[in-house]
Design brief:
Length: 110
């Protein structure tokens, strides 16, 4: 496993919705715009990512699509903290398999 450089700005991006569904085309547009700003990378499903409104499948697809749309000069951090340790580990592994470079994990608060 190689080290990655996490120095720089990684904003927690919003998850766009249209009529209650994730708008992947809007996500692609937003990522294209952010890629021109000098950001080091993006945090998908961070504090602004509407994580709690996503199903397990949507979380994985969102990270997969974000990784596909993010240029190679940027990193993707996936917010993978869940209320159970088992679910957190599974989601973190799945996001790594989708190409996320790192995970942002918060501890359960209950």
């Amino acid at each position: 496993m190689s080290k990655i450089n996490l120095h720089g700005i990684f904003p927690p991006i919003t998850t766009p919705f249209v009529d209650g569904e994730v708008a992947y085309d809007k996500l692609a547009f937003n990522i294209e715009q952010w890629s021109k700003t000098g950001l080091k990378g993006l945090v998908v499903m961070g504090s602004n990512g509407e994580y709690v409104y996503l199903s397990a499948a949507e979380k994985r697809k969102l990270v997969e699509k974000a990784v596909q749309q993010t240029p190679n000069h940027m990193l993707v951090i996936a917010g993978t903290g869940c209320e159970s340790t088992k679910e957190t580990i599974e989601l973190t592994r799945d996001c790594a398999d989708c190409g996320a470079h790192a995970a942002l994990v918060v501890t359960p608060h209950y």
